[in-house]
Amino acid sequence: MNERKDIDGKAGALMLLLCAILGLQQVVIKMSAADMSPMMQIALRSGGSALLMAAVVLWRRDWISWRATMVPGLLAGLMFALEYFFVAQALLYTSASHVVVFLYTAPVFAALLLHWRLPQERLTRLQWLGIALAFGGLVYAFFGGASGAGTGGGIAGEALKGDFYALLAAMAWACNTAIVRSSHLSQTPAGQTMLYHLLVTFVLLTLAAFWMGQQHFVLTPVVWGSLLFQTLVVSFFSILMWFWLLRRYLASRLGVFSFLTPLFGVGFGVVLLNERLEPGFIVGALAVFAGIMLVSTHQWVARWLLRAAGVRQAK
């Protein structure tokens, strides 16, 4: 296996593009929600992306025994489907900006789950501080940014409902991460793992859309554009780009860029959907971002503090 490299200009540019794509997805879904429900959009994009991913997996013969990975694969797929079920519901009640911020609290929940699941994932003091900061910001953003966050301005109760759905989506994402990290899926080719995610999501969200009466749609140019963007760019191209980067660069360095995704999401929501950001939500979101950075980059922070202490002692 080739040794993974530190971030260079090419990797940095691709990560910026990837974060922008992921930050835009909720905004695009909400833009076309009047003509096709978010649930149906996500179901159809998952089905289309699953076909493309299956073709790549078969072409590259990039799989291991399906029997050995079936149970964790289906469980991970279930969590992925739940994540996007809650995202779809959240977008009906609250702003895309709120959804992307609350959704990206998933690393905090994942860190807590993995702390109890894997010995090598024990949390440090800095990470516990980050978790406390993130949860404090979460509470402040949740209750301080509810007014006017709903669809079309919305009422506080509806916005809180949507924000809560987004938090449930983050928890489902965290459970998915824990399943992948602590099962055979951690050694399974990425394409095969994503195929489980996409197929299960397509089946379950299609059934959910019909069950909840959200299957009706009108194929307007906006809907076509949304489906093509989500299928080809979000659920296929961006996944392949991420796996390509992981094979060549250090995952810890790449992960630092993930903090830009919610920032892109908030920016796109403000510019494209004219969403209003409440002062309480902004303050809480900043605390959440700071907490997530401590949880995910605690080793960098610890090394910086040690170097800073060494400099002071030398003086």
UniProtKB/TrEMBL annotation:
<feature type="transmembrane region" description="Helical">
    <location>
        <begin position="194"/>
        <end position="212"/>
    </location>
</feature>
<dbReference type="InterPro" id="IPR050638">
    <property type="entry name" value="AA-Vitamin_Transporters"/>
</dbReference>
<dbReference type="GO" id="GO:0016020">
    <property type="term" value="C:membrane"/>
</dbReference>
<feature type="transmembrane region" description="Helical">
    <location>
        <begin position="128"/>
        <end position="152"/>
    </location>
</feature>
<comment type="similarity">
    <text>Belongs to the EamA transporter family.</text>
</comment>
<feature type="domain" description="EamA">
    <location>
        <begin position="161"/>
        <end position="297"/>
    </location>
</feature>
<feature type="transmembrane region" description="Helical">
    <location>
        <begin position="280"/>
        <end position="306"/>
    </location>
</feature>
<feature type="domain" description="EamA">
    <location>
        <begin position="14"/>
        <end position="141"/>
    </location>
</feature>
<dbReference type="Pfam" id="PF00892">
    <property type="entry name" value="EamA"/>
</dbReference>
<keyword id="KW-0812">Transmembrane</keyword>
<feature type="transmembrane region" description="Helical">
    <location>
        <begin position="164"/>
        <end position="182"/>
    </location>
</feature>
<feature type="transmembrane region" description="Helical">
    <location>
        <begin position="71"/>
        <end position="92"/>
    </location>
</feature>
<feature type="transmembrane region" description="Helical">
    <location>
        <begin position="42"/>
        <end position="59"/>
    </location>
</feature>
<feature type="transmembrane region" description="Helical">
    <location>
        <begin position="224"/>
        <end position="245"/>
    </location>
</feature>
<keyword id="KW-1133">Transmembrane helix</keyword>
<dbReference type="InterPro" id="IPR037185">
    <property type="entry name" value="EmrE-like"/>
</dbReference>
<dbReference type="InterPro" id="IPR000620">
    <property type="entry name" value="EamA_dom"/>
</dbReference>
<feature type="transmembrane region" description="Helical">
    <location>
        <begin position="98"/>
        <end position="116"/>
    </location>
</feature>
<protein>
    <recommendedName>
        <fullName>EamA domain-containing protein</fullName>
    </recommendedName>
</protein>
<keyword id="KW-0472">Membrane</keyword>
<feature type="transmembrane region" description="Helical">
    <location>
        <begin position="254"/>
        <end position="274"/>
    </location>
</feature>
